[in-house]
Specification:
Radius of gyration: 18 Å
Helix content: 40-55%
Distance between the termini: 11 Å
Order of helices and strands: HHHHHHHHEEEEEEEEEEEEEEEH
Shape: globular
Number of strands: 15
Strand content: 5-15%
Number of helices: 9
Structural class: alpha/beta
Strand order of the largest sheet: 3-6-9-12-14-15
Length: about 260
């Protein structure tokens, strides 16, 4: 896959934004002149979500090391930022998303806790998850498997269970729950969202169900059975309305200039 275009543009544009508004350094704890590479920038933006103090400073140092020594982690975070910027249509582009978008911060916090979990530092992964659960009002378990180019719009109230699977180009609104049903409690007890699925605000998807590629779960829907690819489900009974007309969002590969 082609390199993310934010590799070259994000750092200088974000430093310009920080320099133009001195108050940002007070509120976020980020000085324009102190971020000299992308790992430092990503770590600083994430740490700024925590209250000022020892935890913020320590987490920032930890995140710098993770981003600096794990090229895949950095690239994935940039992919998330690229699609969030495109789908948010945020005036000011990627630097504003990086510094101000709660949904992106929620996903970035998961990326860090996931990297720790995969490195065998499970207790630390859970502690980091807990810090951001309190700071951002989200609950994303590091055991969950989330692909590249995912968008969390707003992020508030999002709950993603331990065995959930979210594939590339999925979009989730606020208040979505990917939970268990207390009946099917095996290893794969949480939902699987296939590539390009869209889930509206407040939807509940419960149990080991599969939401097919390009499917749409409407706001407030309760889903307890599989959704076919491209279909739309609505309402408290998760009613299947058949194939939808929503074409979805521009996929990550196209944003990066790759042929589909």
């Amino acid at each position: 896959m082609t390199a993310n275009p934010l590799q070259t543009s994000l750092l200088p544009e974000t430093r310009d934004l920080l320099a133009a508004e001195p108050g940002l350094s007070v509120l976020l704890g980020i000085e324009a002149g102190e971020v000299t590479d992308l790992p430092e920038l990503m770590a600083a933006a994430l740490a700024a979500c925590l209250p000022e103090g020892m935890a913020r400073a320590w987490l920032r140092g930890l995140a710098v090391e993770l981003f600096r020594h794990d090229a895949d982690l950095l690239e994935t975070a940039l992919d998330d930022l690229l699609v969030t910027t495109a789908r948010d249509a945020q005036p000011g582009g990627a630097p504003r998303v990086l510094l101000f978008a709660n949904g992106y911060h929620a996903l970035l916090s998961y990326r860090v806790s996931r990297a720790l979990w995969l490195a065998g530092r499970e207790e630390l992964a859970l502690a980091v998850k807990g810090q951001f659960t309190r700071a951002l009002s989200v609950e994303i378990w590091p055991q969950a498997d989330i692909g590249h180019g995912v968008w969390f719009d707003h992020g508030i109230g999002l709950v993603i269970g331990q065995t959930a699977v979210i594939e590339e180009d999925v979009s989730l609104w606020h208040g979505v729950t990917l939970g268990s049903n207390f009946v099917d409690m095996g290893e794969g007890r949480h939902p699987k969202l296939r590539r390009g699925a869209v889930v509206g605000a407040g939807a509940l998807i419960l149990g080991p169900v599969e939401v097919g590629a390009g499917a749409t779960v409407a706001a407030g829907a309760i889903v307890t059975k599989d959704v076919p690819p491209g279909h739309v489900v609505t309402g408290p009974r998760g009613t299947d309305r058949g194939a939808g007309r929503f074409a979805g969002f521009v996929p990550l590969a196209k944003l990066k200039g790759d042929a589909e």
